């Protein structure tokens, strides 16, 4: 019913897939494209000029129109195929204005980002009805620079999580994707989870790398020392939902390790699109469980 008349706020499609464990929600990408440059990004496979983010045409008028067509209180995810805080959001403020309209209209917001710029909008986010999820894939700046060349450093992302929590804003972390031989070192993961717990995150969601040919090629080019082993692993992988996943025993090994490290620190844990039943009961994969819950959970 909504699909025909909505212009920028769309029904979150993957929700229909059996791999998706998200609650029903909508999706809004204020920008088309993203300049963070993540080599594992699935969106760059199908969006033209992906590295040149541009604001959606008539973004704000279309948001107002779409909001009038969806139920009050609906959950809107920003964003799933471009980072809402990609440059040039610092200058344009389009995500900020979209956020203001959505929250003032009585809707709930889930923000997914790799940028500490989200802290700029704490004044809006701390009114409630929102949760912020920041992805931190490694603590190693050099590895991060190869994985996510233009995104803020891991240190900045951790600081952003700490600042959000200090403001009483619900915040979770994603360790996504875990890539064998690249960011799978157990000691690093342990230190990362300790830092996330110290920052006060309310949940960790972890996920392993799913590839298409172009994604695997970019990762192998960036990490040539791991390329042979990675290609061999994915050659033995499992095809699910148009992507090649790691063999099931590898996914179980990585995700169980992260889950146990989270539990040592009392952190709820979930996975994302893994076709595995590993999760803290009652905890949603996208962090939306924590919208409107008390700060001290
Ligand atoms: S931040 Fe997200 S949308 Fe942007 S390049 Fe990285 S994975 Fe893609």
Question: Helices, strands, pairings?
Answer:
Blueprint (H helix, E strand, L loop, with lengths): L1 H4 L3 E3 L14 E3 L2 E2 L21 E2 L3 H9 L7 E4 L10 H4 L1 H11 L3 E6 L8 H4 L4 E6 L5 H7 L6 H13 L3 E9 L7 H14 L4 E5 L4 H10 L1 H12 L2 E3 L2 E3 L2 H17 L4 E3 L26
Parallel strand pairs: 2-5, 5-6, 6-7, 7-8, 8-9, 9-12
Antiparallel strand pairs: 1-2, 3-4, 10-11
The structure holds iron/sulfur cluster (SF4).
Can you tell me about this structure?
- This protein is an alpha/beta fold and about 300 residues long.
- It has one domain: Alpha-Beta Horseshoe (pyruvate-formate lyase- activating enzyme).
- The chain has helices at about 1-5, 60-65, 90, 95-105, 120-125, 140-145, 155-165, 185-200, 215-220, 225-235, 250-265; strands at about 10, 25-30, 30, 55, 75-80, 110-115, 130-135, 170-180, 205-210, 240, 245, 270.
- Strands 1-2-5-6-7-8-9-12 form an eight-stranded mixed beta sheet. It has a two-stranded antiparallel sheet with strand order 3-4.
- Helix 8 links the parallel strand 8 and strand 9.
- It is globular and about 50 Å long.
- It binds iron/sulfur cluster.
């Amino acid at each position: 019913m909504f699909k025909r008349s909505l212009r920028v706020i769309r029904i979150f499609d993957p929700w229909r897939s059996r791999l998706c464990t998200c609650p029903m929600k909508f999706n809004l990408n204020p920008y088309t494209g993203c300049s963070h440059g993540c080599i594992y990004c699935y969106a760059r496979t199908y969006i033209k000029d992906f590295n040149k983010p541009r604001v959606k045409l008539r973004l704000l008028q279309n948001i107002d129109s779409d909001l009038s067509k969806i139920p009050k209180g609906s959950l809107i995810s920003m964003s799933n195929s471009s980072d809402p805080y990609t440059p040039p959001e610092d200058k344009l403020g389009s995500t900020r204005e979209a956020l203001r309209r959505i929250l003032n209209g009585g809707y709930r917001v889930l923000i997914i980002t790799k940028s500490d710029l989200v802290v700029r909008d704490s004044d809006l986010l701390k009114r409630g009805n929102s949760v912020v999820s920041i992805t931190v894939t490694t603590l190693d700046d050099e590895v991060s620079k190869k994985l996510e060349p233009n995104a803020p450093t891991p240190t900045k992302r951790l600081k952003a999580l700490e600042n959000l929590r200090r403001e009483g804003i619900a915040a979770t972390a994603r360790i996504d994707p875990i890539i064998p031989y690249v960011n799978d070192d157990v000691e690093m993961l342990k230190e990362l989870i300790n830092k996330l717990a110290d920052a006060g995150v309310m949940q960790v969601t972890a996920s392993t790398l799913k590839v298409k040919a172009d994604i695997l090629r970019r990762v192998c080019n960036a990490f040539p020392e791991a390329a042979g082993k990675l290609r061999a692993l994915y050659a033995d992988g499992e095809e699910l939902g148009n992507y090649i996943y790691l063999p099931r025993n590898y996914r179980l090994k990585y995700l169980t390790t992260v889950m146990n490290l989270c539990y040592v620190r009392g952190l709820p844990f979930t996975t994302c699109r893994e076709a595995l039943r590993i999760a803290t009961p009652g905890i949603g994969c996208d962090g939306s469980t924590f919208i409107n819950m008390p700060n001290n959970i």
